[in-house]
Amino acid sequence: MSLPACSGALMRWRVIIASVAAGLLFACQIMSGGAAAAEVWRIACDDNFPPYNFVDGDKVVGLDAEIVAAMVKQAGAEVDFEPQPWSRVQDMLERGEVDAAFQFVGRPDRFEKYFMIGPHRMGQTVFAARSGSTIAVRDVNDLRGYRIGAIRGYTYGPAFDDATGLTRDTTAGDNLQLVRMLAAGRVDLIIGDREALSHFARTAGLHAQLQMLQPVLSEVPRFIAVPRSKPAIAARLDKALVDLRRNGGLAEILKRWE
Fold first, then answer.
1. For residue 169, what pLDDT band results from cuts at 50, 70 and 90?
2. How far apart are CA 129 and CA 115, in angstroms?
3. Is 90 inside any structural domain?
């Protein structure tokens, strides 16, 4: 082979080797995550609703937080929780500032306004009175004549929300305030999620001063709301929940929090 031919072959091999090296580098970047950032969904939730979702240090934890995180992961994205007071959560969802928010009681107006994904679990809405109370509540008609503590901005289901002639005190901003109001005698009854009320009563050292009344007012399905402007995210979350039910992931999370 002549010297010019040899030089040309060498140059061609150098080009080939450089191309292969560049390809390997690009592949390594993809495998290490350096080529593209992961898709992150910003999801709002109540910052103080244990045991379902609450802030622990710099993390949002709880039953519902774990379910939502698992759904997002199943959908192929990452979650960025935005814990806020409940009124702020609703405002952020209304303005489309977040990709989703949880956990919502299903109401006809919400199904019209948002994509409602779920339910991902059920909850029990109950009334609580002070220990030793003789108050009996069989239905909402038995509530007349009593002062009932409720959290402003919360929905408790149509049986209570739509009832007329009741004396409601909605000065409480969260369940802890609600429990303390009842223990202090500022209200005769409080309404809320059974597990949340029990948690805050124990936290405040007031569990012995409260009694949960029977029967349960309602079994409440809980949903994740997605703005109508984000149909693709709604579809992926819906499929992820179906997949978690089928593969046992949802049942495993629920069992861990029993």
1. very high
2. 36
3. yes
* Contact between residue 160 and residue 168 where contact means Cβ atoms under 8 Å apart: no
Domain co-membership, 112 together with 128 = no
Pairing of strands 100-105, 59-61: unpaired
Q: Does residue 141 sit in the same domain as residue 179?
A: yes
| Cα–Cα distance, 114 to 215 (Å, whole number) | 32
Residue 31 lies in a domain: no
Range of the domain at 135: 123-219
Q: For the chain, how many helices (H) and strands (E)?
A: 9, 12
User: What's the DSSP call for residue 229?
Assistant: T
Which residues have C-beta within 8 Å of that of residue 144, sequence separation ≥ 6?
A: 165, 166
- CATH number of the domain residue 51 falls in: 3.40.190.10
- Residue 103: what residue type? Q
- Count of domains forming the chain: 2
Is residue 60 in a domain? yes
> How far is residue 43's CA from residue 4's CA, in Å, rounded to a whole number?
65
pLDDT in tens, 102-118: 999 999 999 999 999 99
Q: Alpha-carbon distance 214 to 223, whole Å? A: 25
What's this model's pTM, rounded to 2 decimal places?
Answer: 0.78
In a domain? residue 85: yes
The closest of 92, 74, 73 to 82, measured between CA atoms, is: 92
Across 237-258, b (16+ Cβ under 10 Å) vs e yields: bbebbeebeeeebbeebeeeee
Residues 211 and 232 in one domain: no
